Amino acid sequence: MSRVCVRATNWLGDAVMSLPAIRAIRQVFPRAHIAIAARPWVADLYARETSIDRIIPYTGPSRAFAARLREERFDGAILLQNAFDAALIVWLARIPERIGYNRDARGLLLTRAIPVPEPGDIPRHERFYYLELLRRAGLIERFPPTDTIRLEGVGAARESGACHLAALGMAAPVIGISPGAAYGNAKRWLPDRFAEVARKFAPMSAAVLVFGSASERPLCEEVAGALSRCHIPARNLAGQTTLREFIDPPPPAASSSPTIPGPCTWPLRSVSLPSPCSAPPTMPPPVPPARWREWFANMPNAAPACFATAPSITVA
């Protein structure tokens, strides 16, 4: 294949987990033109990814987007996203080779419908789910070594992060908090608990930045307000940053700049992206509930009541 379209996943955590597979695709097709079709809210993740030649934002109705892809004359599509819509679009785009997992009743739309791994077939880390697609399709023989998942473009991100914070009139180092969750209260701490954790880290930083979507601005304001009442400088940036701007801060003056997630949100939210401005970004190791309880044992009201049974989401 000389022109390959890769359909990205729709959620940020899944997009991070699929990076090793995207890089493996580049190894398989070193001279091919590789474009990634991605929803706008995850597209910035790939902006500095050298394995990708082009990002095609998936906007508008499915049929209109399929028509756009048809004009690109791709000869192969690899679907990292599982939905029926992903297969329908590349079928409507008349891409000759269409590779993806056989799920969501889309098998007839694929030229190579790959059986979905059963529990125990592959290692538990989510990155292997995407790499297994390539292995079962015969594109790779074995999993490449991927002990860590690192974002590329550290130098550019460091410079951009420094400029962004300077424009905000804030000094380094800073702590970032993202208190929201895609599916609401079931997957997030209460605002006062985020504020309590931030207060514990406050001596390490000059200020606290609270991130989120525009719809999460009232929630983020609760966290920022609680910190301000404790005389801790806090800025509510909900709805005011792009994904790339979220990834970029803080600037290199920070030797360690934590972003604080809740145990149930990691890694499904953007909080799972350590900033490349303070150190080479890497996915953190899994944090068992027992460790969370140990760390926050001395933080009154910081740990959620469901801590003992909170799901442990493996990220490494």
Q: Give the CATH architecture of the largest domain.
A: 3-Layer(aba) Sandwich
Could you tell me the radius of gyration in angstroms? 21 Å
Q: Biggest β-sheet, characterized?
A: 6 strands, parallel
Could you tell me the number of beta strands? Answer: 10
Describe the structure.
The chain has 316 residues and is an alpha/beta fold. It folds into two domains: 3-136, Rossmann fold; 156-309, Rossmann fold (3-Layer(aba) Sandwich). It contains eleven helices and ten strands. The protein has a six-stranded parallel beta sheet with strand order 3-2-1-4-5-6. Helix 5 (84-92) links the parallel strand 4 (76-79) and strand 5 (97-101). Helix 8 packs across helix 9. The protein starts with a strand and ends in a 21-residue tail after the last helix.
Q: What's the short story on this structure?
A:
This protein has 11 helices and 10 strands.
Secondary structure blueprint with pairings:
Layout (H helix, E strand, L loop, with lengths): L2 E5 L4 H6 L1 H10 L4 E6 L1 H4 L10 E4 L4 H11 L3 E4 L4 H9 L4 E5 L10 E3 L12 H10 L17 H15 L5 E4 L13 H11 L5 E4 L6 H13 L4 E3 L6 H5 L11 E2 L28 H7 L21
Parallel strand pairs: 1-2, 1-4, 2-3, 4-5, 5-6, 7-8, 7-10, 8-9
Helix pairs in contact: 2-6, 4-5, 8-9
